[in-house]
Design brief:
alpha+beta, six-stranded mixed sheet, 5 helices, globular
Amino acid sequence: MLVRAVGARTVLAALFALAFVLAPPSPARAHPHVWIDMQSELQFDDQGRVAAIGITWTFDEFYSAFAVEGAARTDNGYDEELLAGLAEVNLQNLAEWNYFTEVTAGGKTVALDTARDGKSTWDDEAGRLTLAFVVPLRKPVIPSATEMLKLRIYDPSYYISIDYVKDEPVRMTGKVPQGCGVNSETPNVENVWIGLPETAFTDPNSRLGANFATIVTLTCPPSS
């Protein structure tokens, strides 16, 4: 799904095979190989509805180096055309998996639209690649105390660990209704491993990564 680039117009093979998602994970390989630091943004429209989810991923140093391996450097890092192409192809590949994004409202799944505003940037000092993009909701949601909106962003195979940064992990932007608030709950990884049933490794639809995903909950008071 995530890919690397070796030229201004060339994007090469996927970082991991599709089999990692389609095949049931075995205990021997059911642990992360790529780590992402994430920030997310609940974007409200001018009617006070949640209209999109902004996502920013900063990849670990090892994957970042792999992603640009062989690419020509510029004075500031890497060519903007190369980075733009990398963002475009990564989002194309992630589309099949809803960009690892799961949104529910009142317990029901919210349909997502095609991601937009994809942009890759390179931090030369840190040696890390960042991918930012926006996932629109097909139909904006009006959250309330009874229709809570919940957000999880995770790799189903758990090949990639996606964890929120400590400082300002989730933001709300746009016309946010008064009284809306966000809280998050992150599972204890050790407790998750202890409690995993055998089916987590034998059922191809187990979505192992969901067990480790942070749940972001948005609540808003009833509209007057």
